[in-house]
Structure formats: structure tokens, C-alpha cells
């Protein structure tokens, strides 16, 4: 993970450095008459953007290590806590612009957090005289996954003065970098002579084997460019929806520590909403007079 | 043209990505699973004794359950599908108590012995796994306190205890409960005196040490039982032609003896023994089936990680194309330990520990029809409620254990 961040930072700095390295810029010939020059309708942009995300899981098929014999499985069903836990992501974007349309490759490091809870209860309902024989447990599971995404997007933008709103949509594939899972078990024991509230030590396990090594999905969103000088600042909101299962079907019960307490992974699709802000640098037409607003003139 | 190119790129990418995605596979779900069969009653306690794989790929578990009234444990049967999901359970009438393994498959039915709570007479029970219905069949021969059973072709071998005459008894029955090939059970004296049967009764009442009673037959050869004979917990060999032993491997009264034996052919056995709490595995040992010998002189691999006088289950299996002997037992860390040995040489091949977070105890292990391993045991949900569990390992996963 550290290596990946370093690589990302180096790439960004190198790109920014190259982009600004001309000490005495000369106006390129093809930049002298912007209105007539068709090359101005094409541009490469390199960007770095980052921001927070919120994740949710959509269960394809639910699994549990606990198989009830005298009550309905729905009693102990997992309740997902969607779009509550904040994650983060950072993207290096390379976009080719041509007459309002862009094709964009946006390699992204993504960190998602999502979780669920379930409850168990044991009572002595068949022996009402033992009403104090009761134990309630609450399991709170949280999953943290890190992905390297390779999305390819088509983008359409329209310029209004210095502001360019855009919409984008595409497809991505994700490679699992790392995952871990934690389980907090707390409860109330009424049988030990009083209302004994307790909380067990958190179970934390490396869970990379429990997740699919890769998955794919669709993404789309909208954003806005603020054109300033020959750079552009952007703010966008993006929705990602995995179209394939993110859990490992083969290693579902691969963690003894989790299955020992009755927990196992569902087959699920992961969605996330992210808001990112960043800066785009042009890779062509770096003459002094070039402005990012030129591309739409 | 540009739009067509975009569309083409998009479709190609979509096709490539979808082809390499993770897909649900029912085979994986049946090859690897952990299932814990919970009951939401605080006072419920179910523990397995033995289990078998059924024709539909599922599992039938013979277990016992805690009863409010009688001193003995009741009979509990559980059926799962091939994914380990609960299908049905049967709590037999409290009149029938103390079920003993093995759970035996003859034809389309499963058989086990239990006893009548009022007169302690042994009863044979046949079970239809498809409907999970049980039929009680009286056992002839005046047999009380069934201790262990096994299959001998289409017959059933039964080790039992005669509380009145202080006898270990071995009998062979057909599936109608009648004695098969013998007029009466073969008798083996456990010795005179009131105190000699005290630990045995404590075993039946679950108030003391549980003894690893066992009965079986060396394929095509002598019969054997692991039980009390002449004041000592012993491995006794007999041809069942008459009363008394042909050969005995003595233990140390109730403090030593074999915890499990599995005949490998001839006089060769995979065995484990206990001695004053210590446990030893003998994956390739020759036992004298005549005369008298002592188990405590047989050495073996020391396993200090196992609980005192650990219950042990031994099976033969083929793992990674090797004929192996698999030992399953309980560890001090409250896990189920699987230990793999080469069948031919007794060489240690690897181990695997199952269960974590809550305590786990072994009841049975088997090789499944998909060449994986299934382990049935007890886990204590929330650290306190005994519940039946099945842990299934795929062929691939169990193969990773072998070095």
C-alpha cells in the first residue's frame, strides 16, 4: 500500500514538473490562431484527484455458519449498514479530450468500509419459571477492503465561461489489494444473577482470502471543471456498482476465527458513492497564451 | 464513427471483465462449509455421537440431548442437506435414552442402539434418513446398557454392560434385533465387587469419565472390543465362538488403555492410547491378538496438546492420492486437531486444527464422496451452549495439510 502511494505521488510530481518545466515558453505556431486550429480541439489531460467515499453492499445470496433448528433464519439475518462508514480514494487520471467528448483512464486506489450486524438470543421460553435464563448477543462486523481500480470512462462536457460541467460513465475492473474484517461481540447476560452487560475482545482477521481477487463493475457520475489558467480544477461525484460478486466463493469459510463465531461472507455486490476533488494539467499546447478555456473555442 | 469505436471498446471490455469474475458455484458451497446447528432454548444441549453421509449428499447426525427428568441423555437425530444446512431434527421420546455409535448404514436405513430408560434394555433403532422417522426394534438376548456398536457386513456388533452380573458382553445382531450366529451374547467378566462398576455407571450417567468403548472386527478375522475385562479397561480379542478372551491388551484399571483402534490388516492397527491423562498415537502398531500384553509398554507419539484422556477418532482416507490414517481429537486450545499419518509407514504427514473463538470437540470424522473430509463435533455457542456442528473440508483443502 505504501509503495503504491509513493508511486502515485512520484508520477504526479513528475508529471506536474514536466508540465511546468519550460522556463522561456515560446508560442507554438499552431497556437497562434486558436480559432482556426483544429488541434486545439484535442487535448491530453493528466490529473490527480482524491476524496471520501461511502459504501453499500447488495446481497446476492446470504450465508451463515449458524443453521437454526427451531427458529427462522431471518431472526439472525445480517442487517447491512450501508453508506454509513467513510472510506477514501485517490485517482490518477489520464484523459484524452476531443470536441466535447473525452476518453478517460482513471487508475484508482480505493478504500471501502462497510459492515453489518446480527443478533442472537437464547431464552428459556419452554420453562417460564426460568425467565432469567436469557442471553442476548449482538455482533457488529466491519469489513475494510482496499482495491486498485482500472476504470475507463467516456466523458461529455460543455463549457460555460470558466465552468465546464460534465457527465461521465464507464466500466471498471478492480484488483483486491488487502482486506480485513473485525467482529465486536457484546451482549447482556441475565442468567448470571443480574443484568450483566459485557463486551468481548474484538476479533480482527486478515480477510484477503475471503474476498474475490478481482471483480468488475460500472460507474457513472457528474462533475464540474473550473478552468483556471492552463490548468483545470474539478469536483465530481461518482457512483460505482460492482456487477460481479466481491466475495470469494471458494474461501467463504476460510477463516476459522470467523466461522467459529458463526460469521461468514455473503455473496454480494459492492456499490460506492465518492466525491473527489482534483487538478488537471494539460499535456499539449503549453504555450504562455494557452488557456484551458481554449479547448472549446 | 467515433461513437462506434467507443461502443466497440466498451463491449469488448465488458466481455473480458465479466468472463473473469467470481461466480457462485454450488460445488464450492458443498465442498467447504462450517455449520453450527443452533437451538434458541437456553437449557437445550445437543451433542453428536456419530454421523454419516446420506445418499442425497447430505448428512445424518446421531446425537444426544439433555433431558429434564431422567439421569440419562435423550436421543436426537439431525438431517442436513449437502451444503450443511439444517433440514430436519427428531427428538425421540424420553423413554429412549443413551444412544451409542456407530451409526450404521444397512441398505436404505440407518441403525443405532439406545436403551429403554425404565429397564435399561438395549433397543435397536432404524432411521429413514429421507423422512427422518425412527422405528424402535427390541433387541433379543437380554442385553442392557449398550456401550458401543459397529457394522459387520449386514450384521451389527454390540458391546454392552451387564450391571447385575458385572459383565462386558459382545453380541451380533441382524437388523431385526435378533441375535445373529450366536445363541446368546458372549460374556467377559469385569471382576467382582461393587466398586468395580462405579466408573462404568458414571460413564452412563455422564457424571464421570467417559470411556472410549469400542467394538469391531479385524476384516475377515477376530472380533475385538475396547472395554472392561478383569478389572481393567482393555482391548480384548475374541472369535465370538464362546465366552472369554482369545487375547487381551491390558490398560491400567480405568486410568489407561486404548482410546481408539482401527484395524489396518492382519495384526496391524492404527491406535491411540491414554495413560493417566497422557495421550499417545500409534499410527502403525502390531498388536498381539492372543495372549496378554500391556498397552502402557507400547510407547507412541506423545501429544501434549491434547486434553487429558482425549477422545480420539481414527479413519482411513485417501488424501492427495496417498493412503493415510487420520486421527481427530480435542486439543487443550479447544480446537479439533486432525493429524495425518502415512498408512503404510506411520510417518507423520501433517496436521490441521479446526475451530476457533468458541470451544470445539470432536465426535466423528469421515471421508466424503467428493473425497473431502467432514468433521462432526460439538461447539459451545457463546462459549456456553453445546450445539452440533459439521466442518467440511474440500479435497483440495485437506490435501494442503499433507507435506
TrEMBL record, chain A:
The keyword Repeat does not apply. Residues 44-246 form the Outer membrane protein beta-barrel domain. The keyword Acetylation does not apply. Residues 1-21 form the signal peptide. Coiled coil: none annotated. It holds the Pfam family OMP_b-brl_2. It comes from the Bacteria. Keywords: Signal. This is Outer membrane beta-barrel protein. It comes from Chryseosolibacter histidini.
UniProtKB/TrEMBL annotation, chain B:
Keywords: Signal. It comes from Chryseosolibacter histidini. This is DUF4374 domain-containing protein. The lineage of its organism: Bacteria, Pseudomonadati, Bacteroidota, Cytophagia, Cytophagales. Residues 1-18 form the signal peptide.
Amino acid at each position: 500500500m505504501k509503495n503504491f502511494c509513493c508511486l502515485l505521488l512520484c508520477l504526479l510530481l513528475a508529471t506536474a514538473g514536466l508540465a511546468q518545466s519550460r522556463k522561456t515558453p515560446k508560442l507554438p505556431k499552431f497556437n497562434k490562431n486558436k480559432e482556426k486550429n483544429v488541434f486545439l480541439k484535442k487535448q491530453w489531460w493528466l490529473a490527480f484527484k482524491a476524496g471520501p467515499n461511502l459504501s453499500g453492499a447488495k446481497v446476492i445470496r446470504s450465508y451463515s455458519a449458524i443453521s437454526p433448528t427451531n427458529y427462522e433464519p431471518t431472526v439472525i439475518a445480517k442487517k447491512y449498514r450501508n453508506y454509513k462508514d467513510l472510506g477514501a480514494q485517490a485517482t490518477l487520471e489520464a484523459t484524452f479530450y476531443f470536441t466535447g467528448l473525452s476518453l478517460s483512464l482513471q487508475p484508482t486506489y480505493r478504500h471501502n468500509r462497510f459492515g453489518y450486524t446480527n443478533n442472537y438470543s437464547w431464552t428459556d421460553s419452554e420453562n417460564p419459571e426460568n425467565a432469567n435464563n436469557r442471553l442476548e448477543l449482538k455482533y457488529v462486523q466491519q469489513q475494510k477492503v482496499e482495491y486498485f481500480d482500472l476504470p475507463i470512462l467516456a466523458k461529455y462536457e460543455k463549457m460555460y465561461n470558466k465552468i465546464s460541467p460534465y457527465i461521465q460513465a464507464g466500466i471498471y475492473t478492480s484488483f483486491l489489494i488487502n482486506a480485513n474484517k473485525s467482529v465486536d461481540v457484546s451482549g447482556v447476560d441475565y442468567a448470571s444473577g443480574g443484568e450483566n452487560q459485557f463486551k468481548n475482545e474484538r476479533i480482527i482477521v486478515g480477510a484477503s482470502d475471503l474476498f474475490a481477487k478481482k471483480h468488475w463493475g460500472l460507474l457513472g457520475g457528474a462533475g464540474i471543471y473550473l478552468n483556471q489558467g492552463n490548468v483545470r480544477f474539478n469536483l465530481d461525484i461518482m457512483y460505482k456498482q460492482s456487477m460481479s460478486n466481491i466475495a470469494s466463493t471458494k474461501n467463504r469459510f476460510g477463516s476459522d476465527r470467523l466461522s467459529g463465531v458463526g460469521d461468514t461472507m455473503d455473496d454480494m455486490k459492492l456499490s460506492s458513492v465518492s466525491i473527489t476533488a482534483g487538478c488537471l494539467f494539460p499535456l499539449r499546447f503549453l504555450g504562455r497564451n494557452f488557456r484551458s478555456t481554449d479547448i472549446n473555442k | 464513427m467515433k461513437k462506434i469505436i467507443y461502443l466497440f471498446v466498451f463491449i469488448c471490455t465488458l466481455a473480458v471483465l465479466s468472463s473473469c469474475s467470481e461466480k457462485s458455484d454450488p460445488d464450492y458451497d458443498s465442498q467447504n462449509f462450517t455449520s453450527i446447528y443452533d437451538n434458541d432454548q437456553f437449557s437445550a444441549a445437543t451433542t453428536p455421537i456419530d454421523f454419516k453421509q446420506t445418499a442425497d449428499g447430505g448428512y445424518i447426525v446421531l446425537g444426544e440431548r439433555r433431558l429434564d427428568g431422567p439421569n440419562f441423555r435423550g436421543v436426537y437425530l439431525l438431517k442436513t442437506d449437502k451444503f450443511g444446512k439444517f433440514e430436519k431434527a427428531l427428538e425421540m421420546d424420553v423413554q429412549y435414552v443413551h444412544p451409542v455409535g456407530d451409526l450404521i448404514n444397512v441398505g436404505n436405513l440407518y441403525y443405532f442402539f439406545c436403551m429403554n430408560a425404565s429397564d435399561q434394555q438395549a433397543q435397536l433403532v432404524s432411521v429413514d434418513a429421507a423422512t427422518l422417522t425412527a422405528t424402535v426394534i427390541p433387541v433379543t438376548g437380554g442385553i442392557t446398557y449398550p456401550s458401543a456398536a459397529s457394522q459387520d457386513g449386514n450384521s451389527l456388533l454390540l458391546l454392552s454392560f451387564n450391571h447385575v452380573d458385572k459383565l462386558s458382553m459382545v453380541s451380533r445382531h441382524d437388523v431385526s434385533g435378533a441375535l445373529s450366529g450366536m445363541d446368546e451374547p458372549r460374556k467377559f467378566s469385569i471382576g467382582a465387587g461393587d466398586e468395580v462398576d462405579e466408573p462404568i455407571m458414571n460413564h452412563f450417567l455422564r457424571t464421570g469419565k467417559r470411556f472410549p468403548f469400542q467394538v469391531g472386527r479385524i476384516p475377515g478375522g477376530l472380533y475385538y472390543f475396547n472395554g472392561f475385562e478383569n478389572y481393567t479397561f482393555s482391548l480384548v480379542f475374541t472369535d465370538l465362538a464362546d465366552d472369554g478372551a482369545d487375547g487381551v491388551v491390558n490398560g491400567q484399571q480405568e486410568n489407561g488403555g486404548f482410546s481408539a483402534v482401527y484395524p489396518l490388516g492382519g495384526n496391524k492397527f492404527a491406535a491411540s492410547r491414554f495413560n493417566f491423562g497422557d495421550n499417545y498415537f500409534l499410527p502403525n502398531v502390531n498388536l498381539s491378538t492372543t495372549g496378554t500384553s500391556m498397552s502402557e509398554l507400547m510407547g507412541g507419539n506423545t501429544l501434549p496438546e491434547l486434553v487429558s484422556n482425549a477422545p480420539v477418532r481414527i479413519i482411513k482416507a485417501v488424501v492427495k492420492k496417498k493412503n493415510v490414517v487420520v486421527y481427530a481429537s480435542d486439543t487443550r486450545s479447544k480446537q479439533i486437531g486432525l493429524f495425518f499419518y502415512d498408512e503404510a509407514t506411520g510417518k507423520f504427514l501433517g496436521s490441521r486444527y479446526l475451530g476457533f473463538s468458541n470451544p470445539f470437540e470432536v465426535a466423528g470424522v469421515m471421508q466424503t464422496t467428493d473425497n473431502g473430509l467432514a468433521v462432526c463435533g460439538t461447539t459451545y455457542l457463546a462459549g456456553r451452549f453445546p450445539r452440533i456442528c459439521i466442518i467440511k473440508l474440500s479435497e483440495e483443502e485437506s490435501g494442503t495439510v499433507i507435506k
